[in-house]
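Researcher: Quick one. two chains, 1169 residues in total.
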Amino acid sequence: MLGNSPKIYPIVCLFFTLIACSGPKPPEAINYKHCAACHKGIESISRNHEFECKICHLQPARQTMPFLEEHESIIRNPSDPRWVSLFCGKCHEKEIKQVQTSLHSTMAGIINQTRYLWGAQDVAFPPIYSANHALKPLPESPLHPESPAELVDDFLRRKCLRCHLHTKGPEAKGLYRATGCAACHMIYNNKGLYEGTDKAIDKHKPSYPMVHRFTKQIPDMQCLHCHNQNHVGADYEGLFEHDYSKTYRSRTTGGAPLPVIYGLDQHHLARDVHAEKGLWCIDCHSRKEIMGDGKLRGYALAVPMIKCKDCHAGFFEPAPNPSLKGITEHDGRFYFHSSYTGKTYPLTLFSKETLSHSVSLHQRVRCSACHAQWSFQDYGLSVIREDYADYIKWRKLTDQGDPYLKDFLDEQLGREKIDPPASPDWLDSRLKKGAWYTGWRFRRWEWMPLGMDQNQKYSILRPKYQYFISYVDATGYVVLDNVVPQRGDDSDLGWTFMPYVPHTTSPVGRSCESCHLNNIAAGIGVFDGSTIDTQLTIPSTPVFPSMTLMSNEAQKRLLLRK
Amino acid sequence: MKRILILIILSLTTVLIYQENRRSKILPLPTEGCLSCHKSVSDPDTSHPISAFGCYSCHMGNPYSLDKERGHLTMVKNPGDLSVVGSTCGQAKCHPDIVPRVKKSIMATNRGIIKTLEYRWEKIENSNKDVEYLMAKENAGGLAIDQYRKMCGGCHLWKKRGDRQGEIGKRGGGCSDCHIIDKDRKEPIDVTKFQHPEITTRIPSENCVKCHNRSARMGLSYFGKFESEGYGTPFDGWELNQRRLSGGRFYLNLPADIHYAKADMTCIDCHTETGVMGDGTRHEYMEGQVDITCRSCHDPLFTSVKEAGEAGDLAVKLAFLNKKIDIPQEAKVGRSKKGKPMYNLQKRGDQIVFYRKKDGAPIELKIFPEKKPHHSMAGHERLSCQSCHSAWIPQCYGCHITYRKDLVQKDWLSGEKTPGQFRESRSYIRFSKPTLGINASGMVAPFSPCQVFVSVFDRKGDYVHEESLNTLTMTSFDPHTTQKGSRTCHDCHGDPKSLGFGEGILYKKEKEWRFRPTYDAQSSGMGIDFPLDAFVDINGKPAQLTSRKGARPFNQEEIGKILDVDGCFPCHVRYEDKIYEDFKQSRRRFETEKDLPCWETARRYTP
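Model:
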């Protein structure tokens, strides 16, 4: 055909000549220093940061170079822990140091409690290890772990630590976010899609912030990129995960399945009254609390934070705390002004007239113990690491709230020739052999066992967790078969129930009988914990000695038993 | 001479008759051709010995042939199969009275299931369809019937036994469904000598549970099994948990029914011959056929066997067939709801004895203490035993069915794959705190959800709104989770879920009861404006339907009365407390007499 069109010859010749003349470097290579040539319309990052792009996005050595060949050498996120000192550190050294001590960076609570429960360390407090360098860096599990104590670091790295400032985690709907400062201060929508005016950014390609803008106006959606699943944060919005089995991927109105977000679909339960009113997480949770105050802390409840009584007064506080930002008084009434949402809310004050508030013993009860409408009660957590490929048994259980695992299983289950399991270590971003699968015994929202918090106040407890640990090695040998771990100091089983504040506040308290004469609240368990499954509803000792289960006397008093 | 001749003839006749008689006695019974191959087959039971019955009388076929093909012509493998049973078990000389009863029984007709489905899905009020009808007519009915055929129609007596592997294959087969003891054969059958499947009247519970493990799940609950969320935990080696049910399901262990836990009773210890096999009436629903109540045993009425006529004879016969229980020749036997004899509940002298049918062991039986304050207290007349003594009930909230016309699925009745495929999924499950309401008999009883959301998709795979439907019902049944103790007073009088509002916070504001529900069904995508676990709203307006006429949640007046009592419990904790003798009067006194001690307490707690 080519031979029949003689006109084409000169063109072909020219083409090959051109190729022959061109050297290894194209004469018109793009100089990536001219950012604005492509990124037309990109937003200014913030009023306080009106710098040239290179100031934040290029390493100092490259900033002075006249020509930049590779787009890859641009630092996409200068606030990433690897770069933050170099870029943000010039002005924000103090803040960075504080953030590095915060629980958001150290993850010390999760790490040290879990290691203690799995028998890898003698105490959970004071904390020993952290996800960063603030404490000892978290070690790696040995290649051939033989006990829960040897497996725990791998479990932490591959399951729990997907949410920390050093990793973007599994990028999926609801989970898109940046690392470092940008994890909070650059807003991502749930689809991770760019919505700004920069012409160079593909608006259909996920994993971009909504706009190129740093902000202190952080909406709840942003916090929930990490604080999701059955953890505090999701409850504020009324979310409770569906069960894992395919049986629960139900189609609802309009024949459509429920949207999957945070790796699973959700029940919608009563939202926290503060969420109903429009308050954001950061209306209560202060900068100091979130970003740290320079002190290393071992767990979330040890961090000084706002209390209900600061806004609503209490047994001993006749009025809200006037030193709190946003609280005003007008004609004897108190108001809270949210600088984030711009709304002003009249404050309902603690009333001694309320029957339950008039009972003096209730001074020892946390507000949330009565005002929480529901709670995360996830009983019996079975975890199994499999280095051996055996996927068929998981075919109905591919949805485990872990988008990486789901994609991996779906792919392997659709194949004839399968790969051995592998999954990422979120701390060092390496793909490692084996995968962790999880399952619950059962999950409930209506049961609320009570115990004592670190101030010996009655508080709602949640299982966190009741581990059953299994490990199958690459040869298929079962190294650990459903083992209940022992705490590092051998004081008890490695199971725990921890006091917490469910973010499911109701304006009215629950009934007297939700605690009094209530076996579950008193820690007797469902059906007295008489079967191997219902025994899981009997609380285990909290991790920290300052927190305890209810005493026998308190149990008897609550149950009106002699 | 003539007399001598007569004498000789007579003598000869006598000898002949004698010899003929003798001969027929020593010869074996006429031998069937079957036995030439099947030389040594064990007896199915002592009532049907092969030496007396041979094979033909049950299995038909051609007994005169020695050829396999000819011999097996017209033979039936399972004589209990309802399609042949009239000529086998039900033939005139054997059990002609039982077979017509069984064919009319609810396990053969499935009328209740079909009727409820058509009533709730398609608003057909008086459906009279049954399995036999649907087997004959392939295109009789709409979506509800298609659902029955594909999702429910695998559990009834007409189903062929052995048509599939596993549990499904054990279901069905008419008489054999219950009366054959299933044994998994490991080795191939040797035709010359094999163990004939054993026939029994001591039906093992496994025979019941192979079917009764879905829907109301009584066959599970009774044994303390609760079909779980399906996590398969705790893991077992490299496997998921071994506590499994058919269909890839798993179970958890909860407290079993006391009749099982304490007395190891089987299903048939309570469920009588008439209750299970029918009484000749083609009942609409299961509860019409069931012939026992708690009272049948715990507040029994006795009949003297001798005076009971036919019923007495039946009691003796059943006890004889059971072979383990003392035959109540001289005793009195208990009477069921319908007055039928309960041969295992006997009164010997002054002593009441309950015999366990599987082994004849006598079981201690507690007579209902009617006079005890907790039973006799005013206001509790309408309580069913189950409302207080059922510890839990399996509850499945939100049953989401996808019906796809572009796919095919097996119709259990025809065995053919036909267009239209159903798939079920759920919102969530629970077991604790059964919701109470009024059942069709006007009694307070536990209810459990059956909440169907059907999404219909056409041949192109598009959702069809007009054909899709929601029908949310609460259904009352005996949970079979009986406990000795009862639920607490507050559990019914003050718990919003038991009262029918669902989980949430029940509180009083400005002297009015209010409720803040926990489940947000609208946001959860259900398209309904009440929580999934709400049977009724705080004003007594029903939120959901029921599956029976007359069954309903508590109404506003009842709710008010129930809640009124709750405030008294902190002080008046005992059933025999005087205030409950005439609660209306006590309530009036509380409102008018300000010097009652109640007010002192109230003042103490009211600043």
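Residues 307-359 of chain A form one domain.
Researcher: Thanks, that's what I needed.
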